[in-house]
């Protein structure tokens, strides 16, 4: 053991989390937590930041054993939990009341397979790439309520009236609908880069010299949002980039570019 495992175990216990509770808050499986605590792997960078936030300690402490820093509200001169939460706002987040935790844990035993199905379905049917979907419980929420957020903006919220009605199938249905209707608020620079990287790997001649040479990644992101909101899908990314390369010399105004491209895309 190199120390990370021991510090993770100690910090988890100090914060009164079971492996299952910590896994739920991070949006991973309890098996992943167990694996880290047995020295069989590490969280990725994004998860490591969230982990240090949840356990009220610094990344340096977790991975290098440097003096432990307390990020709690009581820690004078350190970032408060509220500040860190704003910094770490998730592109797509499902928050649930405490009455849904048991159902969420049951879903986690199947590695939230339905979330993967949603991601694959939207990619195949509409050309949409979704970010990782985090799940966390909120004690201040109604115990049977849930809400879907993008960068701390609530996109949808609902409540089961009785415990017998609790169903993650309904939550997944709402999540898929919201992802489709509010995709412009979900797509971010990282997702846009993933799209262009994938295109560069499979069709380098299409993307070369266009993004970011003729249009920045941020502007390309805005263009994709415009096309999606007007057309309803991002199916033919290759054709979109080809038309962009052809038309961008005439104008760099995003709305006009989107309209010009849409006119020549297949219906």
What key attributes describe this structure?
single chain, 267 residues, alpha+beta, 434 Repressor (Amino-terminal Domain), Glutaredoxin, Helicase, Ruva Protein, domain 3, 3 domains, four-stranded mixed sheet, 54% helix, 8% strand, globular
Topology:
Layout (H helix, E strand, L loop, with lengths): L3 H11 L4 H8 L3 H8 L7 H10 L4 H6 L16 H7 L5 E4 L4 H8 L4 H14 L7 E4 L7 E6 L2 E7 L8 H14 L1 H4 L2 H14 L1 H4 L9 H15 L5 H11 L6 H11 L3
Parallel strand pairs: 1-2
Antiparallel strand pairs: 1-3, 3-4
Largest sheet, strands/sense/barrel: 4 strands, mixed
The gross shape turns out to be: globular
Secondary-structure element pattern, one letter each: HHHHHHEHHEEEHHHHHHH
- Look at the structure and give the CATH class of the largest domain: Alpha Beta
- Poorly predicted regions are 67-88
What name goes with the CATH superfamily of the largest domain? FHIPEP family, domain 1
Tell me which CATH architecture of the largest domain applies here: 3-Layer(aba) Sandwich
Count helical runs: 15
What portion of residues belong to β-strands? 5-15%
- Sheet/helix structural class: alpha+beta
- Please give the domain count: 3
User: How many individual β-strands?
Assistant: 4
Give me the Rg, rounded. Answer: 21 Å
Distance between the termini: 58 Å
Strand order of the largest sheet: 2-1-3-4
Kindly report the CATH topology of the largest domain: Glutaredoxin
